[in-house]
Specification:
By secondary structure, the chain is an alpha/beta fold. It folds into two domains: about 120 residues, no CATH class; about 210 residues, Alpha-Beta Complex (Spore Coat Polysaccharide Biosynthesis Protein SpsA, Chain A), CATH 3.90.550. The chain has 16 helices and twelve strands.
């Protein structure tokens, strides 16, 4: 019991320390007023996105950067994604859509779509966006400024998450919660070792010459969590890579229901741990089981100390991510239960090979 309590408190303190580092270092994309004129290829893979794609296209058209092309790859959608994009492109110069075909063997859908997009792109920079986002003024200028300032091969941003339903609020905050209390994200840039690597596929900005030379999506063509794998490849090839928070310049509604969110996170959970089932189980044991052991001691001082660190952690992460701290504190126990559910389903579907996303086995 004493050993379990000691390990739990060490784990909580370690995560709190990482959170403090991330909060103080404030790893957000700095908004700049300088304007650039580099040609940017905005590349959007889309599969069954008829409900999401139009707001993104409209937001790109309305934002302040003007020297760009937009190419949408319709990834064999079964809905009206292609028709919506084609109609929009017909009325807006610089926008186009590619009709995709069946997925070739050995590829995941998104990686193949991104690879096809890159082959058509003509820009000095390749910007990959997800279809369920919207962008605002200042994003592209600020991102290009960062690329030039630090000579980056890849800049990736974690978008601000929009959540409307209770189901989303009990699941989606787990993304920033796990990110900001496990990894000091400034170290992705500062430490050149590829072990310090993460990224977010919601925003991936590449130096085009570097991308054409290395074909990053082809290198990770069969990976489910392709964003982090690409950052590892970028750093392994001795290019600079950086990860930041979007600072309100990108908004994303990842999922629109509890079930959709659970399925989405389940798809990636085990992959984040390199498909190590013991690794994922050990993490869940520390994250959820450890605090339960401390509570069972009925030692007020220990419980108060642990709870205080968890609450402060939630406050700092919520402020950094642009989320409601009160909701995240109140909903924390439910979010932890959902984390257990996600881990269980991820392991179960991996072992039974029944992990499916948008009609495809992954």
């Amino acid at each position: 019991m004493i050993a379990a309590i000691s390990v739990t408190l060490f784990f909580v303190i370690l995560r709190f320390t990482v959170t403090v580092f991330n909060f103080i270092s404030n790893p957000k994309l700095t908004r700049v007023t300088r304007h650039y004129d580099d040609f940017v290829s905005i590349l959007i893979p889309a599969r069954d996105e008829e409900r999401n794609i139009l707001p993104l296209l409209q937001s790109i058209h309305e934002q302040d950067y003007k020297n760009y092309e937009v190419i949408v790859y319709d990834d064999d959608s079964s809905d009206s994604t292609y028709a919506i994009c084609a109609e929009f492109a017909g009325g807006h110069m610089g926008f186009s859509v590619i009709k995709g075909s069946k997925l070739p063997a050995g590829w995941t859908g998104k990686n193949c779509a991104c690879y096809q997009l890159a082959k058509k792109a003509k820009g000095d920079y390749f910007l990959f966006l997800d279809a369920d986002e919207t962008v605002t003024d200042g994003l592209i200028n600020s991102a290009i400024h960062r690329m030039k300032l630090y000579k980056l091969g890849l800049l990736s941003l974690f978008a601000n998450q929009e959540m409307q339903t209770l189901g989303e609020k009990t699941t989606v905050p787990l993304l920033h919660y796990l990110l900001l209390n496990l990894l000091p994200i400034r170290l992705v840039f500062l430490i050149k070792n590829a072990a310090f690597a993460t990224a977010c596929g919601q925003f991936m900005l590449f130096d085009a010459a570097t991308y054409r030379e290395n074909q990053w999506h082809k290198l990770v063509k069969d990976k489910v969590v392709e964003d982090a794998e690409i950052m590892k490849q970028v750093k392994s090839a001795s290019y600079n890579g950086e990860v930041l928070l979007a600072n309100g310049m990108i908004n994303c509604r990842m999922y629109k229901s509890y079930r959709h969110a659970i399925n989405g996170f389940t798809k990636n959970a085990l992959a984040v741990f390199n498909y190590s089932i013991p690794g994922l189980l050990f993490y869940i044991l520390l994250l959820v089981g450890g605090p339960m052991v401390v509570i069972m001691t009925l030692n007020f001082n220990l419980i108060f100390f642990m709870a205080g660190l968890i609450v402060l952690t939630r406050v700092m992460i919520s402020l950094s991510a642009g989320q409601n701290a009160f909701y995240n504190i109140i909903l924390h126990p439910i979010q932890m239960i959902n984390m257990v559910i996600i881990a269980f389903l991820s392991i179960q579907r991996h072992l039974t090979k029944t992990n499916v996303w948008k009609g495809r086995r992954v």
